[in-house]
Every structure is written in structure tokens, then in C-alpha cells.
Write a structure and sequence with these properties.
- The protein is an alpha/beta fold and 256 residues long.
- The chain has two domains: 141 residues, Hexapeptide repeat proteins (UDP N-Acetylglucosamine Acyltransferase, domain 1, 3 Solenoid), CATH 2.160.10.10; 53 residues, Udp N-acetylglucosamine O-acyltransferase, Domain 2.
- 16% of the residues lie in helices and 26% in strands.
- The strands form three sheets. The chain has an eleven-stranded mixed sheet.
- A hairpin with a 3-residue loop joins strand 24 and strand 25.
- The longest helix is centred in the last third of the chain and has 16 residues.
- The radius of gyration is 20 Å and the shape is elongated.
- 41% of the residues are buried.
Length: 256
């Protein structure tokens, strides 16, 4: 095991021999690290935190610290992180709260750029990119394969649908449609499917064509949402069915 002499590791922390702990890192007594994790320097990991394998934490990241919630009174809540994430400088991931489910989760294969904040009880999926200063309030859900641009705040309890791309500086106050390209002009607006991103993810021309038709009903056909959903249900494909379910289950409404 490679542990720098200046690191402070509490008794009870579980750290495999394959891990590298750099200068001035602090690890609390209830932390469990997976194999081949690297803490570059000045990283703080506290609380009931479970971390998977091959994650890299860059300087001044803080993981599992108490949530920024005035209702929190020291309850034994948790933070869970999957495998092979890159967590860059000054990222903050708060532990959960008793009233919000008790666990903040980050999946696997994600890139969290500098100064990203993941608030208490948020749930982030797999293969996501959160650019610099993207900020998740408490109780946010980010589904798989999402790209969230720089300086994007996401309101509490919002859901960001899978494969969506959100342009930098967009203030997200409602749910973001799956597969969409969503950005801000004078107001937030969905502009259609995230075609280039979906092609890069291996979507076939047939899948893209069905999604484009569904989005035409939703955004360009002068139909209200109920009428658009009726038309969309007539289309084939799992992607369209997922999109319909997402809209039907939205509690905050969706950005159109």
C-alpha cells in the first residue's frame, strides 16, 4: 500500500493494498475504498462512505461530508460511489439525509469536472459528464449517459433523462426530456433530439428517425402535451415508450 506520511487515516477505515493515498489526505473511520483507488492529494473522505474500484480523486475533493441542509442533525446517512469515476479538483459530494432516503449515489464511469457539487440524496447514473461548476441541489436524479454543461444548476427533485445534453449556463427548474438537446436562450427550451450525441452512442438511423418523429409531435406539431402523447403512443420502439413514460411520470413538468 502506498500511503504518504502526511495522510491521516482513522482506525477502522478499510483500504486495500492496491490503493494510493497521496499527501495530506484525510480518511474517516467508516470509509471503505475499493481496489486500485487513487487519492492524489488533499482529499477528504468522511462518513459512512462506500467507494468502488479504480476511482481517481483529485486535490481538494470532499466526499461524504455532512449535507448542506439545516435539518441535518448528524444522522448516520451514507454516500455510495461505483467504479472507475474521475472526480476532479474541488468536487463536493454530500452524504444523504434521513428525510431524503439516506443515501447519495454516484454510479460508474462518470467524469465530474472541477467544482461540481452533488447535493444530498441525489442519484447520478453511469457514463455521465458533469462539466465545471455543474451544481445538483438535493434530491436530483441524473439518469445514464447525461452530459450536463458548465455552470448548470439543477433544482431540487428534478429528473434529467438519459442521453440528454444540457448546454452550459442552463438553469434547470423542470425535468429534462430523455435524448434531448436542451439549452437556454431567453428561456429554457428543448430543441429536439441530441442527434450527434446519440449517433456517438451507437443509435441506428431507424432509432433516430423514430425519436425525431416523436419529438416533432411533442415540440413542433402545435399539439398540447396530452395530444402529443396520444400520437407518440402510436409509434413503435422502446426509446419512444421510455420517452412517453418519462413525461407521464414527471412531477415538475418537462422543458419543451
Amino acid at each position: 500500500m502506498s500511503i504518504h506520511p502526511s495522510a491521516v487515516i482513522a482506525e477502522g477505515a478499510r483500504i486495500p493494498e492496491s490503493c494510493t493515498i497521496g499527501p495530506y489526505c484525510t480518511i474517516g473511520p467508516e470509509v471503505v475504498l475499493g481496489e486500485e483507488c487513487t487519492l492524489v492529494s488533499h482529499v477528504v473522505v468522511e462518513g459512512r462512505t462506500r467507494i468502488g474500484a479504480r476511482n481517481v480523486f483529485y486535490p481538494f475533493a470532499t466526499i461524504g461530508m455532512p449535507p448542506q441542509d439545516l435539518k441535518y442533525r448528524g444522522e448516520p446517512t451514507e454516500t455510495e460511489i461505483g467504479d472507475e469515476n474521475s472526480i476532479r479538483e474541488c468536487v463536493n459530494i454530500s452524504r444523504g439525509t434521513a428525510g431524503g432516503g439516506g443515501v447519495t449515489r454516484l454510479g460508474s464511469n462518470n467524469l465530474l469536472m472541477a467544482f461540481v457539487h452533488i447535493g444530498h440524496d441525489s442519484q447520478v447514473g453511469n457514463h455521465c459528464i458533469l462539466a465545471n461548476n455543474a451544481t445538483l441541489a438535493g434530491h436530483v436524479t441524473i439518469e445514464d449517459q447525461v452530459t450536463l454543461g458548465a455552470f448548470c444548476p439543477v433544482h431540487q427533485h428534478c429528473v434529467v433523462g438519459m442521453y440528454s445534453f444540457i448546454g452550459g449556463g442552463t438553469i434547470v427548474t423542470q425535468d429534462v426530456l430523455p435524448f434531448s438537446l436542451t439549452s437556454v436562450r431567453r428561456e429554457n427550451k428543448a430543441f429536439g433530439i441530441n442527434k450527434i450525441g446519440l449517433e456517438r452512442k451507437g443509435f441506428s438511423p431507424e432509432r433516430l428517425k423514430r425519436l425525431q418523429k416523436a419529438y416533432r409531435y411533442l415540440l413542433a406539431a402545435k399539439l398540447n402535451t396530452t395530444q402529443a402523447l396520444e400520437k407518440m403512443r402510436e409509434l413503435e420502439g422502446d426509446d419512444v415508450a421510455l420517452l412517453v413514460r418519462f413525461i407521464e411520470n414527471s412531477e415538475r413538468g418537462v422543458i419543451k
